[in-house]
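Annex B, item 7. Sequence and C-alpha cells for protein A, then protein B.
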Amino acid sequence: MKRRNLLRALAIGAPLATAGAVGAGIAAADTANFKVMATEQVANKVMVFDKDKSFSDANRYKSWSPGTGGWSNLSDCRIRDTAQFGAIGLAAASGGKVGIWNITTEKDQELNDVLWSATPGGNPHALERIPNVGAFVSASSDGYLTVYAPTKVSDPSTLAKVQTVSLAGAHGVIWDPNNSLLWAAGNKTVQAYSVTGTYRNTRLKAHSKKVALSGLGHDLQADFSNSSLLQVSDSYGVYSINKTTLAKTTLHTTTRIKAYVKMKSGEHFYIRGDNAGSRDWGSPTVVFSQSADRTRSGAEFYKVRYYTTAYN
C-alpha cells in the first residue's frame, strides 16, 4: 500500500469532543466543511482556505503577510482567543521572529497588524499562548523554549522574556487546558511542563510526564476527536499520546510529516516534506483523508492547522 493510501485508510475510533472558538468566520464547532490555515513559505504568508475549495488566491478566506527578514520561512501558525482582542494569530518564523497579530475584518493583513513580536533566536518553530496568565512560549530548534510574560495580561506590549528552558531539538508546543500543562516536542521526546506564578513571575517546570519518540519531534497538536489525546509527528511517523497514561500509539510510519491534524469527524490532513526544490522540507500539497487533496502550484506549505481558537 502506498504511504498516502495508508494514511487515508486510518480510522481510529474515539469519543467526540466539542471544539469551541470565537470570532466571525472562525469555527465554533467541528463541521464537515471546515477552514484550514497554513504557512506558505514561498510567498511567506499565513493563508486560510475553505478545505472544499481550491487553494487559489481567489478562494483565500484570509491571509497575513509579515514580510521577510526575521519573518522569513514562516514555520508555525495558529489562532487563540483573548478577552481584549478576540481572536489573535500566533506565528513563528525560521528567520528568527515570533509574534502575534490582531485578526481583524480585513481579508489580507500585514506586518502593521502585529501586536507584539520577539526574537528568541535559534530557528523558531512554534509559539503557544498560556491562557489566564497571558504568557507565550516559543520553541527554537537549536534547543530551547523561551517564556514571555506580561505585566498586564490584556496588553501584549508588556511581554518580556522571563525564562529560557533547555530542550534539545525543540519544535512544537501546545497548551493542555484539561491538565493545565504545556507540552513540548523535541529530539526523541515529548515533555510536559507545569506553569507556576503569574505576570513576570511566570515559570515553566519540567513535569514527570514524558514520552520517548523514535526521532526528532516535528509537530504537536490536539486531537479534536478526543481531548485526552495529543497528536505528534517525528522523523519516522505519527503517534497518538494519552495525556493521562502516557501510552503512545503508532498511527503510521510515514516519514517527514511536518504537520498532522485529526478532526472530530475522523478526517485527518497533513503536510509531508517532499524532498524536492529549494525547500525540501515543505510541499505544495495539503493531503486530506476524506476530501480532495489541495495543491497550490509553486507553493511550499510547512505547517497546517484547523482554523479554530480551541486548544482541543
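Protein B:
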Amino acid sequence: MTKAERIDRIATILILLLALAVVGLVITVLGLILIPGISHISWHFLTSSSQSFETGGGIFDQLFNSFYLVVLTLLISVPLALGAAIYLNEYAKQNWFTDSLRLAIEVLSSLPSIVIGLFGYLVFVLKWGLDFSLLAGALVLTILNLPLLTRTSETALSQVPNLQRQAGLGLGMAKWQVILKIVLPAALPGILTGAILSAGRIFGEAAALIYTAGQSTITVNYQDWNPFSPTSFLNPMRPAETLAVHIWKLNTEGLIPDASAVSSGAAAVLVLTILLFNLGARLIGHLISKRLEK
C-alpha cells in the first residue's frame, strides 16, 4: 500500500467516524425524548383538553393550536417569500442593492427567536393592538421563517434550466407568463419541500410565541365556525398556547401533579410530528419530481 493510499484510507475512516458520531448523537437525543414519552401517548391524551391543577389532562387544544398556527403562518409567509425569490432570481440585477438584500436576509436568519419574539410583542401586540393572539404569533413566525423560505424558493427557481425560459420567450410568451407557466411548475418540488420544512420549524417554535400567541388557552367551541366569535376555533384573534409553549410552561411551572408525564408525552408528540413533516417534505418532493418527469 502506497503512502497516498494509506492517507486516503485514514481520511475515509475519520470521515466515517465523524458521520457515525453525528448519527449517534441524533439517535441519542431522539431516544432520550421518545423512550420516556411514547408510553404516555394514548388516544385520550391526544383528544382531551389540558388540566390546570388536576391529573389526567391531554394536549388536544395545544395540538390544534399548533397546526392552526402552521397553516396561518404559511398563508402569510409563502406568498411573501415566493415573491421575494422571484424578484431576486428572475428580475433583479446583480448589484449592490441585491447584495444588500441578500445580506439582510442572512442577518435576519441569524437573529435569535427570543429577540424576534420581543419585537413582535412590542410591535404586533402593543403597537398594533393585536394582543396575545394567533395572528400576532403568525406574524412573528413569518419574520422568523422568511429567510428560510426565501432561500429555498430562490434555490429551487435557480435550478430551472435557462433553456426552458428561452423556449417560452421564443414562443412569444411574456416574462411573467414564462415564470407562471414554466418556471414555477418546474420549481414546485423544491418550493414545497422548503415550505414543509418551514412548517416543522413553526410547529416546534416556543420562544417567539410566549410573547405573541400567549401562554393561555381559552375554552374553545369547536362547533362554532364563525371566525369572529371570541370562542370559535377559527378566530385568529384569540390567545392560543401551542404545544411547544405548553411543554415549556409545564417544565417551568409544573402546577399539575403529573406535569412530568404530560411534558414527556407532549415532547414525544412534538418530535414525532416534526419528523413526519421532514419525511413528508421528502416524499412530496420525490412524488412531484417523478410526475413532472413523465
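Comment on protein B: The chain has one domain: 39-293.
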